[in-house]
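[Discussion] Sanity-checking designs against the backbone

I'm trying to build intuition for which residues belong where. Below is a structure token string of 957 positions. I'd appreciate it if someone posts a full sequence so I can compare it with mine line by line.
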């Protein structure tokens, strides 16, 4: 007798298309019209017709299907979406008649009852693996119909698939255990009171199944934990470990056996303690010990989704209760974020290596894909779950909702993430249901892409879905997730002179809506008539939706609404922000009290800031950043003045973190010498934009840490302080990070020690530093610690640089080569900064001319001051100096507008005309003396051309 593996599929007749196929069915006109209506709504009518013809040829019971109330619609639907289920209903057409309970999701208990009845009805000679696989397919048929007919949501679909798996896992476990008990007796152990108890085993689900978000064709990640060591009570006893090892092995084999009906589930046990090298099952005490003493960070992270799915629940529940405090941080410890990010980066690298040379797009592992959303959610759960137990949930979609509810994600962030996740999971389901394969790769053929687009839920791709629309929508979602992921996760961006950073996606397309006239805004006439009048006058367009959300909050808080109604200038500023800055509009929606910072009567304190609590500092930083940027928008503050204010704020935050770090480390890791008094000895030096006092919203701070020679004995202490400063500045909270820190401009970059002495710096720059490293320190200044000594140190370091590079033609050659390399590597993706005629042309030109200035040291110079100094020294003609100042101001204004609009750095101008209108308006506010009215892109081209001409003239041989 042939094995199941040798069973051949039925031979399919040649595909018959169109009217000829319909005629071959020989249907009465009424039934033919009914069939045409269903075919017209199907994504793949040709395939549906093909299977109708096959059904008639093989079963001759098409009439029964045609007269069924819903059978024909269900047949057309299934055959349009799934080849493997289409083949199944050719063999079992009665399945379509047995579909029931379509109006709700079934529970695991209901699936268990169905499975028990199904197994009772199966012939005894049928292998259990075959029957389980057949039952799974029968139930997936019903789940698919609910899914694609819009009768069940995505969360219901994934929950039903998980409940189905739970039922199969539980019934399978009970059967295997019962067979082994019959042979070896019941496993028992003696508890701490000396009483003999039955020993059970828990089947713990992890990953998608653990979170109750299973796919149509997923691996299931399992772990087996039994209650305690002991032995069975049969005539020939074996240890509990040996008994449950047999259970686990037989269980895994049963679920993974391939049959003519496919297999039930691919079982992955690699997430168990010690992974592939560990025991297939482990005792409760052994599991507790492992997670308490040896588990790696990612192993604790994956337990976020762990739950008991089958078997005897006691052992599994006890284990999860024990490890729960280990999973969630009780403080905002950023190491958890870094561990998640590192794991994600390793997976991305593996994906890149595996897909090298193969143009396959993976919706799960691609940047911004399913895995990134899940990692982001787990990261925030780990950070905040210690304080907010309500966040502890294995499901991604529900966890997103809870994070938003607790204001750990803004409404805009939640909306973009949940929309992306639903789109990606629906797409993943359409890919997998076709052949019952665990695939996440998009097809490449245009026809297949068009067909896939038509299978997506109605409304996600509009009334005329196509492959092109699918790719555009997919790309928009991926970019949205990437932007939020990189903003939330502790991302270290590349240093100024470095290899090209990853491409930053353009900001999402701006939806232009008609002026709002909602009931909500009309209700202002009664409660806030002055505000209502102003809203009517200003005619919000781009910010109307966000402003309505804002008003919903204010309607519940009368004092804020009254303030807006009574203060016209404040109200106008609020409306100005909603119209021109979606990012800061979202901040106002989340924190209406930020309106206090918009008041013309509000004056920022110029006194040094002192905080004992980092959370208080972060709140201060957020409010001050809002105040500075809001003034930039609403009061048209010149751009370099805004950048100086933002730099001062960053300086103050660094200084405050310095003081806190010294206090923390002195208490936890005191100096070696008892009489040593740590205070301001450490030197904190800023480079790059912060070094030039041109720091902006969402800028990275390039910082290095230098220790005086006489303090070298306390190197370990001050290293801890430097590390703590970075941690305090960069720790992520619900309000985001203050800013990220890049410390790689130190000697030897990432490979060098975080903290190094003055002597080691000087030796490195005298002997080993490359040209770009030395030149980078020409934009350095002291920001915290012993700033006077740091300034003297920088003066001495600049003399070293000038001796090496300023007195020969080497600097000219090196700078030109460096600039052209950056242009080649970064220019295509970063045209504003690195493209021909971009800001780097200005920067490199000024660096070169500074080197010609005889090594004169300046404590700090921003770009306008650099231009003035170089012109005064006679190294720039008046016309060139005026233009370089104009160009630098233009570039900084455009960059600032992009940041104010989106909340993060951008690399190029957007293509959207509506976005360009916003950006143009903002740039005009900060450069009012512009004499031409060229469109922004034309103005950019003009400036790029002349900037490049000056660069070429300066660097020509």
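Best answer:
Here's mine. Compare freely.
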């Amino acid at each position: 007798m042939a094995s199941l593996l040798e069973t051949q599929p039925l031979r399919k007749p040649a595909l018959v298309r169109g009217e000829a196929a319909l005629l071959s069915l020989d249907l009465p006109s009424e039934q033919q019209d009914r069939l045409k209506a269903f075919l017209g709504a199907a994504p793949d009518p040709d395939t549906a017709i093909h299977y109708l013809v096959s059904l008639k040829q093989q079963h001759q019971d098409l009439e029964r299907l045609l007269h069924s109330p819903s059978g024909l619609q269900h047949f057309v639907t299934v055959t349009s979406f799934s080849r493997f289920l289409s083949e199944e209903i050719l063999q079992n057409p009665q399945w379509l008649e047995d579909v029931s309970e379509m109006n709700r999701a079934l529970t695991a208990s209901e699936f268990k009852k169905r499975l028990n009845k199904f197994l009772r009805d199966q012939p005894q000679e049928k292998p259990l693996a075959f029957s389980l696989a057949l039952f799974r397919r029968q139930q997936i048929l019903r789940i698919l119909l609910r899914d694609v007919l819009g009768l069940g949501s995505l969360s219901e679909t994934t929950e039903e698939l998980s409940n189905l798996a739970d039922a199969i896992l539980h019934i399978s476990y009970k059967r295997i255990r019962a067979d082994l008990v019959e042979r070896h007796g019941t496993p028992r152990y003696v508890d701490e009171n000396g009483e003999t108890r039955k020993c059970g085993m828990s089947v713990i689900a992890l990953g998608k199944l653990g979170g109750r978000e299973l796919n149509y064709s997923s691996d299931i990640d399992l772990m087996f934990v039994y209650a305690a060591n002991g032995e069975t009570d049969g005539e020939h006893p074996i240890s509990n470990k040996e008994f449950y090892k047999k259970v686990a092995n037989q269980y895994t084999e049963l679920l993974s056996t391939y049959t003519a009906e496919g297999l039930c589930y691919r079982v992955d046990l690699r997430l168990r303690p010690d992974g592939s090298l560990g025991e297939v099952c482990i005792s409760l005490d052994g599991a507790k010990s492992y997670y308490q003493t040896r588990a790696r960070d990612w192993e604790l992270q994956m337990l976020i989704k762990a739950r008991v799915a089958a078997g005897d629940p006691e052992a599994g529940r006890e284990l999860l209760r024990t490890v729960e405090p280990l999973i969630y941080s009780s403080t905002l410890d950023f190491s958890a974020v870094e561990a998640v990010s590192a794991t994600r980066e390793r997976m991305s690298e593996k994906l890149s290596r595996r897909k090298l040379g193969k143009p396959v797009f993976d919706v799960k592992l691609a940047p911004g894909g399913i895995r990134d959303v899940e990692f982001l959610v787990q990261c925030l759960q780990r950070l905040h779950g210690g304080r907010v137990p309500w966040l502890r949930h294995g499901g991604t979609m529900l966890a997103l909702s809870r994070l938003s509810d607790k204001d750990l994600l803004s409404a805009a962030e939640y909306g973009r993430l949940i929309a992306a996740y639903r789109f990606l999971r629906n797409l993943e389901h359409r890919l997998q249901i076709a052949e019952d394969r665990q695939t996440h790769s998009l097809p490449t053929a245009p026809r297949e892409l068009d067909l896939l687009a038509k299978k997506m839920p109605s409304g996600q791709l509009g009334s005329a879905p196509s492959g092109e629309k699918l790719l555009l929508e997919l790309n928009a979602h991926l970019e949205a997730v990437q932007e939020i992921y990189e903003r939330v996760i502790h991302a270290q961006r590349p240093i100024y002179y470095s290899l090209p950073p990853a491409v930053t996606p353009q900001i999402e397309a701006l939806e232009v809506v008609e002026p709002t006239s909602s009931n909500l805004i009309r209700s202002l006439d009664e409660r806030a008539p002055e505000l209502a009048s102003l809203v009517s006058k200003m005619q919000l367009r781009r910010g109307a939706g966000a402003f309505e959300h804002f008003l919903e909050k204010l309607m519940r808080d009368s004092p804020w609404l009254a303030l807006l109604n009574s203060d016209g200038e404040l109200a106008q500023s609020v409306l100005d922000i909603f119209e021109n800055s979606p990012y800061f509009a979202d901040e106002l929606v989340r924190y209406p009290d930020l309106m206090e910072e918009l008041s013309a009567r509000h004056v920022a304190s110029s006194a040094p800031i002192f905080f004992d609590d980092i959370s208080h500092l972060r709140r201060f930083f957020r409010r001050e950043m809002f105040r500075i940027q809001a003034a930039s928008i609403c009061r048209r503050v010149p751009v370099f003045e805004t950048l100086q204010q933002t730099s001062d704020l960053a300086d103050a935050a660094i200084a405050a973190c310095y003081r806190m770090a010294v206090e923390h480390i002195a208490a936890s890791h005191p100096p070696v010498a008892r009489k040593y008094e740590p205070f301001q000895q450490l030197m904190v030096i800023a480079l790059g934009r912060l070094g030039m006092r041109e720091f902006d919203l969402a800028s990275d701070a390039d910082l290095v840490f230098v220790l005086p020679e006489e303090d070298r004995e306390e190197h370990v202490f001050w290293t801890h302080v430097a590390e703590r400063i970075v941690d305090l500045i960069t720790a992520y909270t619900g309000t985001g990070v203050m800013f990220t820190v890049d410390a790689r401009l130190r000697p030897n970059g990432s490979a060098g020690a975080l903290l190094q002495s003055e002597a080691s710096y000087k030796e490195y720059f005298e002997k080993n530093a490359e040209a770009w490293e030395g030149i980078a320190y020409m934009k350095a200044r002291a920001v915290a610690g012993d700033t006077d000594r740091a300034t003297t140190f920088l003066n001495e370091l600049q003399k070293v640089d000038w001796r090496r590079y300023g007195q020969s033609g080497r600097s000219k050659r090196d700078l030109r080569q460096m600039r052209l390399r950056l242009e080649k590597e970064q220019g295509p993706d970063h045209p504003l900064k690195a493209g021909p005629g971009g800001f780097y042309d200005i920067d490199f030109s000024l660096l070169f001319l500074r080197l010609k200035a005889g090594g004169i040291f300046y404590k700090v110079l921003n770009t306008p001051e650099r231009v003035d100094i170089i012109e005064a020294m006679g190294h720039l003609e008046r016309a060139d100096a005026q233009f370089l100042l104009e160009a630098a101001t233009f570039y900084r204004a455009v960059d600032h507008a992009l940041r104010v609009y989106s909340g993060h750095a951008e690399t190029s101008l957007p293509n959207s005309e509506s976005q360009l209108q916003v950006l143009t308006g903002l740039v005009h506010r900060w450069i009012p003396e512009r004499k031409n009215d060229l469109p922004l892109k034309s103005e950019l081209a003009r400036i790029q051309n002349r900037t490049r001409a000056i660069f070429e003239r300066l660097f020509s041989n």
